[in-house]
Amino acid sequence: MIGYLEGEIRFTSKGRIILFVNGIGFIVFVPSSTSFLEKENVSLFIHTHLREDNLSLFGFASAEDLDLFELLISVSGVGPKIGLGIFSVSEAENIVHAIETSNLSFFTSISGVGKKTAQRIILDLKSKLSKGDINMKNLEGSSELVDSLTSLGFQKNEISIIISDIDNSLPLGTQIKLALSLLHK
């Protein structure tokens, strides 16, 4: 497994570089938001992704970015290309913030990420990033709706994802119907 490379960039295009290290040119996929110049010397933390028919290298400027990338691709339905796509749209701090605040629209705006995948990313990673504490900020002001949904068997972490999509000025019955339709998608 390759975990770190240091060398000179010989070729660069959007989202991909060839890094020349000790006489070997490695193709490394990088976030397209990162810009490199040919002949530039760089150091990258590497995720080696091995499939039966392919070996791919994904490079990041910091170990923290690499750790977040590996957390993202640990989620079912999120592969390295989608993980890299998330990093191409935003920086690590914004990605973590989107997870902590259950920002579905942040993730669904990324090519290849649908609503269910975005919900899975948030549910799977929120507890890992916040050391087990689920941020229930989105549940404030909707206690009747939350109580109704929990009595129907839904978990608060599931409810926190969809609660911001429901207008709390609507009658409670309408809010519950909307919530159920969102939870069953």
UniProtKB/TrEMBL annotation:
<dbReference type="InterPro" id="IPR003583">
    <property type="entry name" value="Hlx-hairpin-Hlx_DNA-bd_motif"/>
</dbReference>
<keyword id="KW-0067">ATP-binding</keyword>
<dbReference type="InterPro" id="IPR013849">
    <property type="entry name" value="DNA_helicase_Holl-junc_RuvA_I"/>
</dbReference>
<comment type="subunit">
    <text>Homotetramer. Forms an RuvA(8)-RuvB(12)-Holliday junction (HJ) complex. HJ DNA is sandwiched between 2 RuvA tetramers; dsDNA enters through RuvA and exits via RuvB. An RuvB hexamer assembles on each DNA strand where it exits the tetramer. Each RuvB hexamer is contacted by two RuvA subunits (via domain III) on 2 adjacent RuvB subunits; this complex drives branch migration. In the full resolvosome a probable DNA-RuvA(4)-RuvB(12)-RuvC(2) complex forms which resolves the HJ.</text>
</comment>
<keyword id="KW-0233">DNA recombination</keyword>
<dbReference type="GO" id="GO:0000400">
    <property type="term" value="F:four-way junction DNA binding"/>
</dbReference>
<dbReference type="GO" id="GO:0006310">
    <property type="term" value="P:DNA recombination"/>
</dbReference>
<feature type="transmembrane region" description="Helical">
    <location>
        <begin position="17"/>
        <end position="37"/>
    </location>
</feature>
<keyword id="KW-0238">DNA-binding</keyword>
<keyword id="KW-0812">Transmembrane</keyword>
<keyword id="KW-0547">Nucleotide-binding</keyword>
<dbReference type="Pfam" id="PF14520">
    <property type="entry name" value="HHH_5"/>
</dbReference>
<keyword id="KW-0227">DNA damage</keyword>
<dbReference type="GO" id="GO:0009378">
    <property type="term" value="F:four-way junction helicase activity"/>
</dbReference>
<protein>
    <recommendedName>
        <fullName>Holliday junction branch migration complex subunit RuvA</fullName>
    </recommendedName>
</protein>
<keyword id="KW-1133">Transmembrane helix</keyword>
<feature type="domain" description="Helix-hairpin-helix DNA-binding motif class 1">
    <location>
        <begin position="105"/>
        <end position="124"/>
    </location>
</feature>
<feature type="region of interest" description="Domain III">
    <location>
        <begin position="143"/>
        <end position="185"/>
    </location>
</feature>
<comment type="function">
    <text>The RuvA-RuvB-RuvC complex processes Holliday junction (HJ) DNA during genetic recombination and DNA repair, while the RuvA-RuvB complex plays an important role in the rescue of blocked DNA replication forks via replication fork reversal (RFR). RuvA specifically binds to HJ cruciform DNA, conferring on it an open structure. The RuvB hexamer acts as an ATP-dependent pump, pulling dsDNA into and through the RuvAB complex. HJ branch migration allows RuvC to scan DNA until it finds its consensus sequence, where it cleaves and resolves the cruciform DNA.</text>
</comment>
<dbReference type="GO" id="GO:0048476">
    <property type="term" value="C:Holliday junction resolvase complex"/>
</dbReference>
<feature type="domain" description="Helix-hairpin-helix DNA-binding motif class 1">
    <location>
        <begin position="70"/>
        <end position="89"/>
    </location>
</feature>
<comment type="similarity">
    <text>Belongs to the RuvA family.</text>
</comment>
<dbReference type="GO" id="GO:0006281">
    <property type="term" value="P:DNA repair"/>
</dbReference>
<keyword id="KW-0234">DNA repair</keyword>
<keyword id="KW-0472">Membrane</keyword>
<dbReference type="InterPro" id="IPR010994">
    <property type="entry name" value="RuvA_2-like"/>
</dbReference>
<keyword id="KW-0963">Cytoplasm</keyword>
<dbReference type="GO" id="GO:0005524">
    <property type="term" value="F:ATP binding"/>
</dbReference>
<keyword id="KW-0378">Hydrolase</keyword>
<dbReference type="GO" id="GO:0005737">
    <property type="term" value="C:cytoplasm"/>
</dbReference>
<dbReference type="Pfam" id="PF01330">
    <property type="entry name" value="RuvA_N"/>
</dbReference>
<dbReference type="InterPro" id="IPR012340">
    <property type="entry name" value="NA-bd_OB-fold"/>
</dbReference>
<keyword id="KW-0347">Helicase</keyword>
<dbReference type="InterPro" id="IPR000085">
    <property type="entry name" value="RuvA"/>
</dbReference>
